[in-house]
Amino acid sequence: MKSSKSIIILVTSIILLGIVATTVGIFSSSGPGPIEFESIHGNIVTMYGKGIYKYMSSTAAPQGIAQDYVTLTIGIPLLIASLILAIKGSIRGKILLTGTLGYFLVTYLFYLVMAMYNQLFLVYVALTFASFYSFLICILSFRYNDLNTMFKKELPVKFIGGFLITNSIAIGFLWLSRIVGPLLKGTYPIELEHYTTLIVQGLDLSILLPAAFLSGLLIIKKDKLGYLFAPIYIVFLSILMTSLTGKILGQLLIGVDVGPVIYIIPSINLISWVCTVLFLRKVNNQEILLKKIV
Which residues cross the membrane (predicted)? Predict the structure, then answer.
């Protein structure tokens, strides 16, 4: 990254706006409480009715609040620490920073298009903007010709790549199992609730899961791009799965039967963090592999 000022300004903006978005999401509570709403498909959906997420369903809003806790207590501190390390020229810091920015980008892109319009709309816009461009700057700051020497040879690429591929296929089939049946019957999946389309499933199937699959395939083949995309995706996935684990706990607290995901998501979460540690431990201590931020 050639410009430290650009990254510092963008990431600092994400940190400050992220604190605003998460604290408002966690602590806002005004509103009448649960209310029933008839969706465009004629289904009765119970709305949360409180705080900034009052127009989200009673099952989705607690998930948003749970994710806000993870973003505030894990995402933002990791963003601060990784920025400091990256500015000092640390490869580990740069990997952590890029992956964490990927988490913020995906998180607030989903908030922007799914959290229902509320007073934080422009905050979500700004967070998505800042996350996207800082993520792009970080990606472009890695030197392509040196990517295959960024990690030690004993890095377990088959294990990491196999995990990324397996996870992408498993989640892909999970989403398709919930989509294809209703499509063939001419009905609507229960996950649609009062939304007009399946935003999470659509973006997962079209962008995130293919990215995981390709990253896994490339690193197994020891392709240079695999050494760039796989560690970044793993860091992103680790934080994302932590937030999903938090969402599951949030649902359990309100008495929702989450089914087998109570075992699946925490397991994926644990493996993701193991892979993150493996990447960070196997980094070559060659700071010349990074373009200077300054």
Answer: 7-27, 69-88, 95-115, 121-143, 155-175, 195-220, 227-249, 261-280
